[in-house]
Amino acid sequence: MKQSTRIGTKHLADMETERLAWSLKTFADATPISSLRKLESEIAEIEKNIEGGIKDPEEYADAMMCLLDSAGRDGITVAEILSAFEIKLDKNKLRKWRKNPDDSYSHVKD
Fold this sequence. Notes:
This protein is mostly helical. The chain contains four helices and four strands; from the N terminus they run E-E-H-H-H-H-E-E.
């Protein structure tokens, strides 16, 4: 399966290389865990927008940047994530799923 990671005139990997270099310089003391804490606040903003009927792709971009920041600070590249994405999607398609009380879903453990 060929993955398309081209967005506008840049590839996602190129944008992430630029973003991570900027982040490492700007937030020198951040850690993979602190980036996840920031992600939690970005998710709360997205939830508030959804509840208010506001569609703001920039908030999703913020959340994605926080997740990629955590990965990058943990030594995991976009290429590795995209490869794992493809593998995980194939695995998930083969699983059985159940709906949880909070309307999320979990795979049924064998």
